[in-house]
Each structure stands twice: as C-alpha cells, then as structure tokens.
Amino acid sequence: MLRTHARPVPHLRLARRSKPINRRKPNILRRVLGAAVLVLIAECVAVALLSPRFQVKTTKVSGLKSIPLARIRAQFRVSKGQNLFLAPTGDWEESIARLPAVASVSIAKHLPGSLEVLVQERKPWASVRTKDGRWHTIDKNFIPFRVTASPEAGLLRILASDFEAWEAIPGIALPSAGLEAAQECADWISDYGKFPVTQIEIDAGSKVCLNRVGGVPVYLGSSEKTREKLTVLEKLLAERPDLALKDSKSLHYINLFAADAPAIAEVLPTTEKKP
Fold first, then answer.
1. How far is CA 185 from CA 114, 122, 234, 238, 250, in A?
2. Residue 251 pLDDT more than 70?
3. Rounded mean pLDDT of 33-37?
4. Is residue 251 within a helix (H) or strand (E), and if so which, with residue range?
5. Predicted pLDDT of residue 21
6. CA–CA separation, 72 vs 106, rounded Å?
7. Is domain 126-266 annotated with CATH 3.40.50.11690?
C-alpha cells in the first residue's frame, strides 16, 4: 500500500525551544558583573562619606534683617570634619525655626562642601499692648516675636484686653478673639484712605473700637459682621463729610454695634446766658 502523505517533521526552531533548560547551572558572568557593581557602589559611598573633599568648609546665612547673625549661628553647630552628606540639616532647621522672629528656614547643601541657610523673618504688622503695659510686635498671623517698651514706629497700635498678659508667649499666636476684626479694620483703613486712625482698642469682651485721629471713637462692638459695619461707616462718611474731619468738635462718638441701626452722638451746643 502506497502512502499518499509525507510524515510530518518537527520544525527546527520549535525543537530547540522545547529543549529543557538547565536552571541549576550558575550564570557566572552575571554574578561577576553584579559583584563588580556592588563593589563600585561601596567605593563611591566610602569616598562620599570619608573624603575630606566633601567636608563642610563654609556656611552662608542669608535673609536676615533684624535678627543678629550670631543668634542664628548659635542654634546649630557644624563640627570640624562634618561630612556634607551626613549633616543633620533637618534638626538644624527645627532649631532655628524655634526662634520667635523666624517665619521659615531652609538649609541647602552645595557640593563639594558648603551650606546655605535661608531665613525668612516675620514681617511686623502691628504693635499690641497687653494689660501689663508692654508692647508686642506681631505679624499678620497674630504671632508676637518682639517685646518693646513703646510701640514701634509706623505700625498699627492695638490695645488688647481680652486675654491675660502672661498669655502673650513669643512664637505662639495671641489668644485674642478681637484681633481678626482688628485686622479687617486695618485692611479697610488702608483701602479707604480717608479715615485716619490712631489706634484700635479691644476690650475684655473682645468688642472693637476705632479711635479716629482727633479722639472720636467708632464703636464696632463684637467681631461679628465687621465688614458689614465698615461698609455702613463708609456710607455714613459719604453722606456726612464732617464725620471724617480730624478736628471735629461737634462729634462725640459713632456707634455701629448694630449695622442696621447706626447711631451718631453729637455734642450739644452749650447755651450761655447773657449777663
């Protein structure tokens, strides 16, 4: 009997692929290369950590305006032979940031061996007088960072009586509920520009009072609806230009405790009897 079909022959590539691989046989070349890489990495680390080239040689401090340089340097100490890569810059930053007058700080490392300390100081916003008569310079976050015997020139003066004097801790925000309203008032005074104020008072109940130049007080009351009250005051000044006069002697006070019912107390003229 004759065969009409040839016997199939397995493909050569398939035969090669199906050949079992001996996985127990070690790949010597790969192991040698891996060991060489590890040795190279170890040598680089050793050079970086032990070479005198990467020791800290210079330290630059920038950004200072009022803080003495010596006070910054006293917060961290670079020991002799300090390696640049091992320098504990995080701990040093925390130490410097504890200074009340420091808003933020960052320490950068520069090859081959220098440190750059960038300090951002707090910006003075107002001088706050506490119950003990001392003045505390604060920033816009209400954080006191400097104590003076008198208010600093050019700063808004705030007399605060809604917290105790011992609560004015440098570096910690003042616990005054009236300061937020005082800040809104300060922004309004700056934007309006036609109502000069000598100081802002905050009483024990956190009620706010603006002392206009000339001694006329504007009672705003509680810190609620402060912006609305200031808008009412602006309308009153537009209707009564005499209210903005510095030397007005006919005005006793302006009461804005209720924004929808403002009150203007005027000094009554005295009548003199003719002899």
1. 47, 21, 12, 18, 24
2. yes
3. 72
4. strand 251-255
5. 57
6. 12
7. yes
